[in-house]
């Protein structure tokens, strides 16, 4: 049980965390800060936060749990802004989709508070952003990757694990660099490709007309192209080297498919498609599980449709 | 009302058509043919077809409605195999995802029967193939593109429209070449990209491990990569020129995004993502509608989840 969550950033991710924590009865009070006054007052009107803080620093003041839920490039400045009032026992987390850059920012700024920081990346989201889409079930049944530093205090790392498990998530521990390599492949590159595919339609004269003809395949393939531009600008910049390396792998695989098409080599083409089809058919998204030994209240609701099996 | 549907190909598309027609009370008898005896007997056991035909020719014999539901490359040989017993009044359709090649095959083979052929492409499907996934609701609420030839008899074209509308689909008429250009952009290229993205993971040592970390974004983006290899080999080969042209457009859009990443040009990157995000957010899949003046029984059930709004 936490006394006070200091929530910095009141968007989909942060708002959903606050709602989930409240519903689970794991926090007494949520003090929120957003650089947008409109978002902040909306967060309070929606009951996501209890108190509007006039600054990030004041949201952190008195908090025993602090969550940064911001575009990743804002992490370093936010650490600088809040470190002076961060309580010595508070658990500090983020929810950024890249981890090596966030860890580097923490090392540069947190000083004696570094052991309190447990970098987190919940594998959840929607293609819509904003506090009005905050959902207490967003993290239920999803994976949450934690990338603690060697300096992270083991008891803070354990608290972070138990907290996410209490929200219905399945927790994995990883090295930050390994995390960034993996998510470049399974998340950041797919977003980049979806952005490119939609822009390719937009740049053609008939593109908008063609869009009217698109069906459920296009709908699902392109869903992530509707993601938030600032959040994804930051992710693609923070993890550019890994994403560009994955794009080279992708282009090689695309080249192979196109070569088979150009040479009318049906057998090679079928083999390449069969390989993709088999790999994708066998794949199952990781399902969440609640650790039975959680010190927090156990989850009883079934997984939501946000990340179904 | 049709007396007899001659169904050639008892997979997801053909089986769903037969089930939908039966449920709507629009056909008295379904005679099916599959080159796989196992599939054929399963189709009968599942009640999708009433009679097993020993050949495509015999499935067509006596039919006043004939549907080819095969990988598109099999169209020409099938036309040759069945034309001798095709009744003079029968309506002949296919469900292929490419249309110019199917029209060319019809011109080369159907002779005096050419006016009976109404090429059709229902924008429906699942990432799973096979008769066991046949679904009477597959076409409900979906678009069906018809690409009649100048030689197509207007009354056959009208029957085809009314038939698909009676199954709950929204019918559009298009030129076959225009169809292939549009679907290269909104369907065939997305499939090619999804195949390449999954193969890119498969070709890396850590790929399978990374897949365990993938979430709902990857799930939706890559769903179509699980599609049937033979069907998609044929589609990509039949429409290779258009698909390769769309891939060049896509690569140009990807180049622009990567250039912004390489130059750490956050403003350009954000602008490119914002363009994709806005275009995709505004997009809505076309919803089906039943024409009120259909001569067939009107549909009363709401659209299924197969191609939701």
Largest interface: A-B, 94 and 94 residues
Q: What proportion of the residues of chain A form beta strands (DSSP E)? A: 5-15%
Largest sheet of chain A: 6 strands, parallel
**Highest-level CATH class of the largest domain in chain A:** Alpha Beta
Number of continuous helical runs of chain A: 12
Look at the helices and sheets of chain A and give the structural class: alpha/beta
Known CATH architecture of the largest domain in chain A: 3-Layer(aba) Sandwich
Tell the overall outline of chain A. elongated
Tell me the number of structural domains of chain A: 2
The total of beta strands of chain A comes to 9
Low-confidence runs of chain A (pLDDT<50, min 5 residues)? 288-309
CATH fold annotation of the largest domain in chain A: Rossmann fold
Mean pLDDT, all residues of chain A:
92
């Amino acid at each position: 049980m936490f006394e006070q969550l200091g929530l910095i950033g009141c968007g989909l991710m942060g708002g959903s965390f606050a709602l989930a924590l409240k519903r689970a009865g794991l926090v007494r009070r949520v003090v929120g800060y957003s650089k947008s006054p409109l978002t902040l007052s909306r967060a309070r009107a929606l009951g996501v936060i209890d108190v509007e803080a006039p600054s990030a620093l004041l949201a952190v003041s008195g908090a025993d749990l602090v969550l940064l839920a911001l575009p990743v490039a804002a992490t370093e400045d936010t650490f600088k802004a809040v470190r002076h009032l961060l309580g010595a026992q508070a658990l500090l987390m983020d929810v950024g989709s890249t981890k090596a850059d966030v860890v580097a920012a923490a090392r540069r700024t947190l000083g004696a508070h570094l052991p309190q920081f447990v970098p987190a990346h919940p594998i959840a989201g929607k293609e819509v952003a904003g506090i009005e889409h905050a959902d207490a079930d967003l993290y239920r049944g999803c994976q949450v990757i934690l990338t603690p530093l060697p300096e992270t205090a083991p008891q803070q790392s354990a608290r972070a694990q138990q907290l996410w498990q209490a929200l219905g998530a399945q927790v994995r521990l990883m090295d930050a660099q390994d995390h960034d390599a993996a998510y470049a492949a399974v998340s950041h590159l797919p977003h980049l490709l979806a952005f490119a595919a939609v822009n390719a339609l937009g740049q053609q004269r008939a593109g908008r007309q063609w869009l009217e003809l698109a069906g459920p395949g296009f709908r699902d393939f392109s869903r992530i192209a509707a993601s938030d531009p600032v959040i994804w600008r930051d992710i693609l910049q923070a993890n550019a080297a890994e994403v560009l390396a994955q794009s080279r792998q992708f282009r090689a695989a695309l080249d192979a498919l196109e070569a088979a098409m150009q040479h009318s080599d049906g057998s090679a083409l079928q083999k390449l498609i069969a390989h993709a089809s088999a790999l994708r058919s066998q794949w199952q998204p990781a399902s969440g599980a609640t650790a039975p030994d959680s010190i927090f209240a156990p989850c009883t609701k079934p997984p939501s449709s946000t990340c179904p099996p």
